[in-house]
Every structure is written in C-alpha cells, then in structure tokens.
Amino acid sequence: MPADDHHLLERRYRIMGRNAPLFYDKPVHLVRGEGVWLYDADGKRYLDVYNNVPCVGHCHPQVVEALARQAETLNIHTRYLHEGIVNYAERLCATFAPSLDAAMFTCTGTEANELALRMARYVTGGTGIIVSDFSYHGNSETLAALTTCSPTPEPLPAFARQIQIPDPYRDRQGRSDEELARVFASQVEQAVRSMQADGIRPAALLIDTLFANEGLPDRVPGYVEQAVRIVREAGGLFICDEVQAGFARTGDAMWGHQLTDAVPDIVTLGKPMGNGHPVAGLVAARAHVDAFGGAANYFNTFGGNPVSAAVASAVLDVIETEDLAANCRNVGAYVRSGLDQLKARHPVVGNVRSQGLFFGLDLVNDDAQNSPAPDKAKRLINLMRDRGVLISRIGRHDNILKMRPPLVFSKENADVLLTTLDDALAAL
Ligand SMILES: Cc1ncc(COP(=O)(O)O)c(C=O)c1O
Question: What sections of the protein cross the membrane (predicted)?
C-alpha cells in the first residue's frame, strides 16, 4: 500500500475508530468513478463487479445532470407540494402489481424497512416478525435486533422467529423441488405456531426473495409462495425487501419478487434507487398507507425531496432508455456460461448460482462433503483486488463469491472478469 494510504488509514482509525468496516486486506483508496470503472489515488483502474448502488454506472451523466439541475432550482423538505415526487411515485408504482398503488419515501433502506414493520404492525394489530436465519435488513435498533447474518449486541427479540432458507446445493439430500419447498415452508408454520403459543400475533414475514445475504441460493419454485400463504393465513403481511434485488437486476423482471407468484403487501426499496444519492422508500396498498399515515403522522425531512425525486426519476429513465433489463439478461447469461466453464476447470468452485447480473460462486474444500472454503474465498477476493477487479463474498459460511456489477456491465467487461477470475483461481 502506498505510504500516503497508510497515513490516511491511520487518520481514519484515529478519527472513525478501528471497526468502521473497510474491504480488502489492502483497502482501496478510490478517487473517481465512471461507468463500471473505479480509479484509485495512483490512477490504477478497477473493474467494479461489486456495487449495485451505482446501478446505471458510476457518475452517469444523465443522473448527475438531473441532480445538478434540480439542486440549482429548488431543494426543500417534503411538506410542500412538488410535482417531481408525485410524478416519480406514479411511475414507480406503475412497475408493481396493481394492488401496490401508493409510495412513501425515506433516505435509507433501514428507514424503509423500519417503516414497513411499523405499518405491518399497525394494520395487522400483531407484533410478531419472521425473518430468515441469515439476513440483514438495516441498522436501526429493531432491525439490528432482527439481524441474523452478523453479530449485533441486541439479542433476537421475543417477538421474532428465524427460518432457514433452502439452498438446493447444500440442502437437497435427494429431495425434489416440491419436497424442499414443503419441508422448508413447514419451518414457517412452526414459527407461526411458536409465536401463537407465546401469545404473539404474527405481523409480517420480512424477506428478500433473491436471498442475497443468504448467498443467492437457486430458487426453489413454490417455496416463497407457500411461506407467504402460511403467514397470511395467520393474519400477517408479506414485506419484500428489494433493497438488493430490485431495479431490473434479475433481467427477467423489475423486482425480485416478480420471479415468484407471491405479490407482497409492502415492498421496501433503497440502494440502487438513487444511483448513490440517498433515496429509498416503500410501496404498499394505498389503504395501508392511508391507515398508517392517519395514525402515525409520519414524515421524513429529506426522504423524497425535490433533488432525490429528480435523481430517482433519472435512474428510471436510464434503466428504460438503455434497456438495462435486457442487458442484465444478455450479459448475465454470458457471464453465467463463463462461470460454468470456470467451474469445470477449477474444482474449488463447488457451485455456480446467478440471477441476471448477480452471481455467486460457492468455493469448497477438496473433501467428500465439498465443505465450504471461507479462507479460499477471502484469499480470492484479495487476489482479484490486486488484479484490478472488485468483488466480495457472502453466505452463512462466508465462502460464496459475491459479484453484482452495475447494470451497464458489458460482454467486454465480462471477459475481463472471467479471465481475471480464471487467473486468480489458478493462483489460489
Ligand atoms: C437487503 C438489505 N436491506 C436493507 C439494507 C439497509 O439499507 P441501508 O444501508 O440503506 O440502510 C441493506 C443494506 O445492506 C440490505 O442489503
């Protein structure tokens, strides 16, 4: 690491503490971004295969222009009439099923999920929340307590129950998709029964239907639908966290849940919504929004301000005009076939999983169980970083390479990723 970066790191430790997270053994000191490329302080270029926030590409000129134009015209808190946010809310809701016909805005995914929980509890009269046993939905006190994918000082609350999400690669044990769906959905039944036994009424099932933090397991047809039916029969709502899955990444749909037949009651949004500008929110049935709004007098100073609305609209414009869903499908299929070829050449790759432009490689040890290889995954992401490609890792064993580039990723970019990955896998 250059001497200047050492100095900056020490200053950061001193002023921000040693535990403010940083990626890689040698942290990357970034100064500029453009499209799928990031540049460090020495001018070295990195291919960004990690970041979903800049979904239409780093510093997309149309988004930057929309932001600057609105910032020099008007920016103000959200309790005045402004056409920008109404236009955006109408456009956004039109991308969902007709039952999801109203929007509320926040600045972060955390706030969106917190608001969704409050809304679900208010409209159901219940308090019980079911989450997956390896999930993250935000950093407020309630959501930290519900976090199951990393340690938090807050214990899992009495109102919460965890369910395990099926991963066909590790959980199949000779079972068909139907059996897998049924066996794992029965955990939702048990969670509901256990709440009821403790006098807790279920308010919501809160999941990301791509199960990104869980490691992007292959979808088990019918599982989400069964889980949602069980929760609804017990009086709870289905809250779908689209903070990672949303905005066309799957290529086959604008939203992750649209790959299933389950229509959520509340959808939460964030990360890619503003391409890096902090705008997030939720979409729900107008009846829920009106009922909750009537009781809670909810407002958010910055959530959905005129600049955020202009930026979020520009992001939708680019997704539409550049047909980024089609790009996710085409380039996604191209990368997938390259990853399958790498699996055939490198025994350390136990399993390839993907949804559009979201990929996971399950790295395994050379043993009979194909046991997870977190140390190899850690080494590999550092080898990739040294070779100028940024990726990360996920999953309950921290052994699944996480690759989730901006949606403008091209086949040429894919070739760089695949060649570098081939080289780094060989160097492991
Ligand atoms: C699935 C999911 N939900 C919610 C959040 C929280 O979003 P934010 O960091 O904007 O509060 C995250 C952040 O990583 C996430 O991955």
Answer: none
What is the rounded CA–CA span in Å between residue 117 and residue 289?
Answer: 12
With the C-alpha atoms ordered 220, 221, 226, 231, is the resulting torsion angle positive or negative? positive
Q: Using CA atoms, how far apart are residues 367 and 247, in angstroms rounded to an integer? A: 39
Q: Determine the distance separating the centroid of ligand 1 and the alpha carbon of 137, expressed in angstroms.
A: 5
Q: What are the pLDDT digits (tens) for 385-428? A: 999 999 999 999 999 999 999 999 999 999 999 999 999 999 99
Query: 210: CA distance to ligand 1 center in Å?
Result: 14
Nearest residue CA, atom 7 of ligand 1? 109
User: Could you tell which of 242, 271, 275, 308 is best to mutate to test the pocket of ligand 1, judged by most ligand atoms within 8 Å of the CB?
Assistant: 271
Pocket test for ligand 1, best of 137, 207, 242, 277 (most atoms within 8 A of CB): 137
Q: How many CB atoms lie within 10 A of CB 81?
A: 6
Instruction: Confirm or reject: Cβ of 211 under 6 Å from ligand 1.
Output: no
**pLDDT for 92:** 98
User: What's the CA-to-centroid distance between 386 and ligand 1, angstroms?
Assistant: 27
Provide the CATH number for the domain formed by 61-321 in this structure.
3.40.640.10
> What residues does 45 pair with on adjacent strands?
39
Mean pLDDT of 315-341: 98
Give CA–CA dist 50/358, Å, rounded: 9
For the chain, what is the mean pLDDT? 97
91-108 mean pLDDT:
98
Contact of 283 with 240, CB cutoff 8 Å: no
Decide whether 28-56+324-427 matches 61-321 in CATH topology: no
Q: Domains of the chain: which residue ranges? A: 28-56+324-427, 61-321
CATH class of this structure's domain 28-56+324-427:
alpha beta
pLDDT in tens, 194-245: 999 999 999 999 999 999 999 999 999 999 999 999 999 999 999 999 999 9
- State if residue 243 touches ligand 1 by the CB under 6 angstroms criterion: yes
Which DSSP symbol is given to 251?
Answer: S
Ligand 1 and 51: CB distance under 6 A: no
170 CB within 6 A, ligand 1: no
Q: Is the model's pLDDT at 95 over the cut of 80? A: yes
Question: Ligand 1 pocket, 52 CB below 6 A?
Answer: no
